[in-house]
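Database export, one record per block. Field names are fixed; values are copied verbatim from the stored entry.
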Amino acid sequence: MRLCFLVEEHYRHDGMPNEVIGQLTAWGHRVDVLRPGGSLLRMTEVVAEGAHDAWVLKTVSGGPGLTLLEAAAATGLTTVNDARSIRGVRDKALAAAIGRGRGLPLPPTYAVARPELLREIPAAEYPLVVKPADGSSGRAVHLVSSPGRLETLLPVLAGEGMLIAQPYVPNSGTDIKVYAVGGELFATERCSPLHPDPSVRERRVPLSSEVAAIAAQVGAVYGLDLYGVDVLLGPDGPVVVDVNDFPSFRQVPDAAARVARAVLGLARAGGGPATAAAAPAAPAPAPAPAAATTMAAAPVSLPVSLPLSIPAQSSPAQISAAAGDTV
């Protein structure tokens, strides 16, 4: 297959996607890398050729890569993820409206075009988490304790464009990052960007049935195939605080091979679910308590585009052998 990866300068030396590109190349596929932030683009010619089986985006929010991906999609080319779905999560104000409207446990969200408008948020809503609507990688996320603290931050926020503000969710200082790839969910625990602690190292953790169901629902709501979900365990249960298309997949076993196989499957399916045609119907799981912390082995029974299974343990040898069967 021939694939086009749109890679921002920010990720030029990053393991994700470079290791995926290397894996695809090793399997005999042709991968063209386009850096939309550092290239003069003749838009009509770039997308009119139709020479690629799929276009894959790994860029920062707000960069030109998504525009190019949308141009490719508009001409009928396959994109990974769906270009409209990426737009739906990269605009955090839009993502909040879509998610809460579809029943996801997201905090109430305010959106403003100018930071001084944040003054209108009632004092009872503090403390607040304020961040750019197009932010990524934890950039410019602020914990605002009071209206007085907001006043001191207004000059800092002035150049950030559209902002969102959400009531702070009390938590332990760590969050759960759930990665979805190739029909599987993997969870890690890591330090919250609002509570930096160098002693907390990101690590794989078991995934509760409650968080797994929420993570699978995120994919269905936003129409994503490869994605990450940030979840806080608040006093009233899990809360989704961020959704990322094409995240780092840190701590996922054999991440490069898994992501590469998922990209190939989506390309072959024309952007549809990579395993939907071959996957059996998910059996109805036995009821599980919301607070369960054991690793689930059966697919999550949700209205999603493919059954998402949560492996208890994955063997590097197994994924490497399986990869050779399908590339």
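Remark 1: The first helix runs from residue 15 to 26.
Remark 2: DSSP finds nine helices and 13 strands in the chain.
End of record.
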